[in-house]
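Late entry, written up from scratch paper. The run itself happened at the end of the previous shift, but nothing got recorded in the book at the time, so transcribing now.
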Amino acid sequence: MDHGGTGRSTRLDCVAAQATRTGSPLGDGIAISEVSERTNAPENEYGDLALFSMTSAATDLSAFISDYSNGASTIVYGATYGAAVVERLIHLALPTVTGYVMDSISTSSGAYLKFFEYMSTSDTDFGEVSDKVFFSFVNWIKSAEPTFTPRDFPQH
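Output as recorded:
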């Protein structure tokens, strides 16, 4: 699974609004003036935009697993965006899926607004984790190091 517009997926584009074109005021960005001009363009081109939802992605993954699984058990692995899709897949409760692995999950479904994760604050949020957990662990290792006796292991 990947984000729309990466890998082999189709990038959503609006030629009429010039977004992502050289004529756009922001180049490959989207200017506010372009938003109101063509808000319906993607729906006109691609149809129902619900097809681009997490539920749709999880339903597609569910159909793939049902059609191509070994019939015994399946463990689903998802990283970053894929982990968010796997989170949605859990709600579909496939009987052949016996486990889920969500690596680097980037979702906040059901979170209160003040705890909601935004990509724009992830450096700060993860910085707190590294400062409080990782570096305190590293400091503990350094302080505990003298209490451990080094061992030489035989070479094979």
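The longest strand covers residues 97-103.
(Scratch paper discarded after transcription.)
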